[in-house]
Amino acid sequence: MKTIEWIGDSSGHLRLLDQTGLPLKASFIDCKTTKELFDAIRRLSVRGAPAIGVSAAYGVLLGLRDLSGEDRSQFDATFFEVADYLAESRPTAVNLFWALERLKKLVRRESGLSPAEMRDRLLEEAKAIDAEDQEMCAAMGRFGAELIPEGAGILTHCNTGSLATAGDGTALAVIFAAHDQGKNIHVYVDETRPLLQGARLTAWELMQRKVPSTLICDSMAAWVMKQGMVQAVITGADRIAANGDAANKIGTYGLSVLAQAHGIPFYVVAPSSTFDFDITTGEEIPIEQRDGKEITTAFGKQTAPDHVKTYNPAFDVAPADRITALVTERGVIQPVTKENIETVLG
Ligand code: MRU
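Structure tokens for the assembled complex are given below, as produced in the milestone run.
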């Protein structure tokens, strides 16, 4: 089952596995307009930093498919408008902006191509971004698996698997690789309130791959650590600043504090496309604020009084000094310092 698939030639469309229905219903959405994709990203039908980047890369083609004529300047104007529109869909995961920026550079560079040729070239580039993401997932899995001891209990948060990327995942790729190597691991899955990406998606992915796992409420993480059931905490990231501060699903900061308090290594797994070298620290990472209804009526049932005040940041930032190592497709960065990040990522 593919999470993201481009159907047809450069005038084709984007097929997404609708993650809002999982784990009960696996259905697909065919996005034929940029608005349909924008809405799908916003309501988390497609989600996870790398998956958002890959979808947006294909997504620009949706805004160009009805353009006829040979006028390249009109083509470019529409392209930049579509790219800027998609960039508004979600603010935190930098992979979205990274993918769109890569396409913008391509359009500027290939100014001699006709609109039809440029469309084909954009599809080629989106497919390259998709394929590279798959390779990066495999490489992160290989590097990260080295860090996992035999018999480890591993705690993870949110969903970082094949639903969140074009490949096997980031943090989950490490878990899958360690499991495939025959390591006898057990994964504790935070349910990940308010939208339950852990319960709905990660538990489902781990069960599909037959990785031993146990679902816990987020509030149980400290106690599970205290009881010695966890030897490593592994999460993904949505944006990593130049100094290594890493934004990820709300609750990740708390886990980094808990891991340090219990002397447990805390690993963040992310491809180079998740690093934002334009910002020096996590303070500058924009944190998405989402509708309070996700807290009060998450899945259709009201669970709080009418008119209650809510605060619903979708992400938080784990500071670099609480991260034991960053696992990237180019290697492991440990200790996490600006200098070491530059050395590994260049
Ligand atoms: O709001 P979401 O579901 O898009 O949040 C996703 C996460 O926080 C993941 O942990 C992150 O994107 C890294 S995944 C490869």
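The chain has two domains: 4-137, 141-345. The pocket of MRU is lined by residues 44, 47-50, 93, 158, 160, 164-165, 170, 197, 236-238, 248-249, 314 (CB under 6 Å). Further analysis is deferred to the final report.
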